[in-house]
Specification:
Oligomer: single chain
CATH architecture: Sandwich
CATH superfamily: q2cbj1_9rhob like domain
Strand content: 25-35%
Number of helices: 2
Number of strands: 10
Strand order of the largest sheet: 1-8-5-10-3-2
Helix content: 10-25%
CATH topology: Jelly Rolls
Structural class: alpha+beta
Distance between the termini: 47 Å
Radius of gyration: 17 Å
Length: about 200
Amino acid sequence: MKEIFPTVIGISQNESQPYIKRSFLNHCIRMKESVPSGGQNWISGVYNTSGTHLIHTDKRFDSLTKWINSEVMEYAGQIGYNQKRFACIDSWINFYEKGDYQEIHEHTQDCTISAVYYLKTPEKSGNLILHSPEPLGVTDNFDKDNPYTWKIYTIEPKEGMLVMFKANVYHNVTKNDADEERISIAYNFKVEDSIPNP
C-alpha cells in the first residue's frame, strides 16, 4: 500500500498555558472593548480582529507568537516545506459568545498554512471540524476505525492547544453552547519568498 495525497494535521500543546491564559486573557478582553470587530464578510456575528488588529505584530503577545512560529516551522518541515522559511502574514482574535459559530471556509487566497490557538475553552463551547479534501462524489464507505474513509475530523479544543493545517483544508466551528465565551487566536503563514516586497 502507498499513502499519497495525505491531509496532515499538526496538534501541539503549550505547557505554559496557565501562564499564557493569565497573561493574555485581560489583553484580549480589553481589545474587544476598544478594537472594532473585523471579518465583515463572515456569516456569524463572531467578534474578531481580522483586518482590524494583527496579533503577531502586537508586542504584548510576543512570547505566544514566538512559540507558535516555532511549532508552525516544525509542522511545515514535516509536510515537505523543510527548505522553506515561513512568515506570519495575518492573525486575529475570535470571541465566540453563546450561539456563535463559524461557517465552512478555507484560507488559500491568503496563505499556505493556517493555525489556531485556544486561549479559553469552556466545556461545550464549540468544536473545530476539518473536512476531507476528497470530492464529495466519492462513494461513501465510512468506517470509524479507518481514517481513510472519514469525511470530517472533529477536534474538541482544549486550552493551550495549537492546531495547524494546510490552508486549503476546509473547516468550520460548531455553535458555542456554553454560557461563557470561547477565545481563540488564528494565524496565517506564507512562504517568505512568495510574499511581495512592500
